Amino acid sequence: MSVLPATGREWHLTARPNGWPTPEDFALREAQVSEPAEGRILVRNLYFSVDPYMRGRMNDVKSYTPPFQLDKPMDGGAVGEVIASNADGFAVGDHVLHGLGWREYAQVPAQYATKVDASLAPLSAYLGVLGMTGLTAYAGLFDVASFKEGDTVFVSGAAGAVGNQVGQMARLKGAARVIGSAGSDEKVKHLIEDLGFDAAFNYKNGPVSKQLREAAPDGIDVYFDNVGGEHLEAAITSFNVHGRATICGMISQYNNTESTPGPRNLALIIGKRLRVQGMLVNDHTALQPQFVQEVAGWIASGELKYQETVVQGVEKGVDAFLGMLRGENTGKMIVALSQ
């Protein structure tokens, strides 16, 4: 084996945030790098992902995924290059997708690594449009929300990693109208002019319910929720009969320190016969082959566009995470490590 680095840096959670996380809740620490144990590979990470769900893992509460441990390395999606292998089927130079991000070097059990092909798409795409966020959009729209041609679709957080893909996929599959909300006039312009949304609005410019009603005067059939709160209440009001909502995220309340009141109009679910369903992407892995085949085709043809906000350097990992929570990203927020 080639000479390996002696140490690498990794991000640790050092305190559980109360409300909005701060840089003081994290520490970038040196860790030893060693040759991989049997059945493992050593990966030099090239990119790692920061995602909204990670905020929930910073709380010490029971959830669908275990919380981050204090003073231990955090984890999440990452793509890197194998620099040492003690596992069959993996060779030095292979590129792999795995779950040990937030660090420069990762010793990964081979069964939890997936080879990826840099000739088919940029490696960072496997953390976004061809990865977890892309599959979330695909499964949430077509499987959970039962999208059908002619539906009017509303997407909250539409300039984010998942939302922008949902809107484009709906358009490609024949939506009658695609509407998005975003947090700046610049993002609204991007949704309409670059991604083909029929309408979009800045939710900071006025009540969401009023702006949605103006954008969808004939109502909506599908709502893809990344935000929750006022957006969900507005969608319930605007739904047509038999509308379907995919509840993917509620970023508007992840940092709240007190319980958030629910929508005040839940009784409309009864008369409108609405279907409101939460989703976790891990429930939809069976769709992965179909998803990759269809979405890769859209990317190759130029029909589907994707955006990345790339922050350079492992030392900027927390800045990227906090920026994502504040909505500073367009598309997928990714941290690129030195190559």
How many separate helices? 9
Distance between the termini: 20 Å
What is the name of the CATH class of the largest domain? Alpha Beta
Tally of discrete structural domains: 2
Number of strands: 15
Q: Uncertain segments of ≥5 residues (pLDDT<50)? A: none
Basic shape: globular
Largest sheet: 7 strands, mixed
CATH-defined superfamily of the largest domain: Medium-chain alcohol dehydrogenases, catalytic domain
Could you spell the SSE succession in H and E letters?
A: EEEHEEEEHEHEHEHEHEHEHEHE
Instruction: Return the CATH architecture of the largest domain.
Output: Alpha-Beta Complex
Characterization of this structure:
The structure is a single chain. This protein is of the alpha/beta class. The protein folds into two domains: 7-128 and 307-336, Quinone Oxidoreductase, Chain A, domain 1; 135-282, Rossmann fold (3-Layer(aba) Sandwich). Helix content is 24%, strand content 25%. It has nine helices and 15 strands. It has helices at 53-56, 132-144, 163-172, 185-193, 208-215, 230-238, 268-271, 288-301, 317-325, and strands spanning 7-13, 26-32, 40-49, 78-85, 95-98, 105-109, 114-115, 152-155, 177-182, 199-202, 220-225, 239-247, 275-278, 308-312, 332-336. The strands form three sheets. Strands 3, 4, 5, 6, 7, 14 and 15 form a seven-stranded mixed beta sheet that branches. Helix 5 packs parallel to helix 6. It starts with 6 loop residues before the first strand and ends with a strand. The mean pLDDT is 94.
